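Cross-posted from the bioinformatics board.
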Amino acid sequence: MSCSPDRIILACEVFRNELDWLAARMDNPPPIHYLEMGLHQSPDQLNKTVQAFVDDVEHHYAPGLTILFAYGLCGQGLSGITAKKATLILPRVHDCIPLLLGIDQDDAGKYSQNGSTYWQSPGWVNYADSELLRNKERFFQEYKEKFGEENARYLMDEQLTWLKNYTAVSLIRWTELDEMEKELTKPPGFFEAEARCFAKEADLPFLQTTGSDNYLRALLSGGTDERRFLHIKPGYSVVLTGDGILEAVYSN
Amino acid sequence: MSVLTEMSEMLQKGKTKETAALVQKALDEGVSPKEVLDEGLMAGMNIIGERFKNNDIFIPEVLIAARAMAAGTDILRPLLSGGDADHKGTIVIGTIKDDLHDIGKNIVGMMMEGKGLTVVDLGNNVQPAKFIEAAIEHKADIIGVSAMLTTTMMHMKDVVADLNNSELAGKTKIMVGGAPLTQAFCDQIGAHFYAQDATAAADQAIEYCLSLKG
């Protein structure tokens, strides 16, 4: 795989399986740099990390660079991101789910049953593996040691109650998923099995939703469709308007 | 160590039974219910709030401290005067429509109760009109709206609009908070307060409510 020095992608780890799969099947895919998952929980931290990447990359790459983000606005973590010389390209989405589903942001509410679907994907399965729900016994023992058994039971209850607010767990399934599992040397049906396990632990029904690689494929190809990708010129930055639209505004 | 200091320390450690026992002990020793609440329980919860704000402690420590506080206030509640002088203020809180995240909002509620405010929690996925209905019913001083998603926070504009079209216009204030929220967004939609974290939410709420009492 050869690097394309005029373009680079900064991606959330949630997309690694999908992006690596697609990039391996392209001529001259851009280099992809991944940041750890979960940074959206501290949008300030995500913002600082992304901006530091942009500043560093601008320093080392030739003028005329384009930095594409495999991110959404992600809790406003990408708001205010700006470059002095590079063009930034950001999908016009609020988070990773429309990118994994291959849909426009306007359709996202319909797909998620107005926010009541808890999404899983290969990346989210990997992330969930470290989390409270998949490690109940370990967390319980840690809490018990630190706070006593009664408090430990209370904490497990209190920190898992939020799941009851959701109506289903749904795995975003690309048609390529089986092939992706083979290439990752995972057992057949691995991601579905893991997502089903998550649903079982969460005591929620398990569903599957067909996703598409079209949005991420378009990103890898340069994100040229300005209807789907916000182009941010040097000196401009991303803002979220009061109507939920992503815009590029001049930032001094 | 005084019984109130010990009570505050037990609360901070999340020792529910010990906190409740010390509340009873303080009352038996003749300490007034108000002093037990202010100097024992709320003093401990204030320290928890500051430490949480400074990232010295995290959600589990806050949750168990709040639980210990609730055990203490359960004993005090029937003994505290119901007069207006002791009523600090009422807040209606909830997570906005289409948003199911509520741990942050729950912690805000606990912190506000820790300040002696009356909190009416509407839960999550709350329709904008419901905030106003509840605020009217409970004569709320503040409506607190939280969101964890940039998509759902857009609905907060409707809470502001509904408030401005209601009998509470000009009286009840709106506070907004949650990870994607900013002061700029608060200003843009015409909300009155932006709280960057649970401690700030509780601090701003009590400051505003006490200012109403003159």
